[in-house]
Design goal:
By secondary structure, the protein is mainly beta. The chain has a domain of about 80 residues: OB fold (Dihydrolipoamide Acetyltransferase, E2P), CATH 2.40.50.180. It is about 5% helix and about 35% strand. Strands 1-4-5-3-2 form a 5-stranded mixed β-sheet. A two-stranded antiparallel sheet has the order 6-7. A hairpin with a 2-residue loop joins strand 2 and strand 3. It is globular.
């Protein structure tokens, strides 16, 4: 995103798919691009650049959707996130992960589990 690399725990990733048509859903926040029909399952798609206030991404031939699994309150769901590209699977040792920075109480940083060195 925006010339930065970000990571997702491999156990959360269910599938990586090429860009496909996303159906707009009215009255959703701007960061919800819509939904895709993936083998009969309707999956919401989020554009993280908009969600994080970076702006809308330029789609290229490398743009893809990562399907991730979410667990909330005992309920399992799938969600797609739009990414500029997927570069590699990288194993990061636990000792090479710095804890979540302290931004104070006013900022929700639940989406950050740590920073790889």
């Amino acid at each position: 995103m925006a010339d930065e690399e970000h990571g997702i725990g491999i156990s959360r990733i269910k599938e990586i798919i090429g860009m496909m048509p996303v159906t707009f859903v009215p009255q959703t926040p701007p960061y919800i691009k819509g939904v895709v029909n993936l083998r009969g399952k309707i999956i919401p798609v989020v554009e993280l650049q908009i969600k994080f206030g970076i702006g809308e991404a330029d789609y290229t031939e490398k743009t893809c959707i990562i399907i991730i699994g979410n667990q909330r309150r005992g309920y399992s769901s799938l969600m797609g996130i739009l990414v500029d590209s997927v570069s590699e699977v990288l194993e990061v040792k636990r000792e090479d992960i710095e804890g979540t920075p302290d931004f104070g109480d006013r900022l929700n940083i639940d989406y950050i589990s740590g920073i790889a060195k």
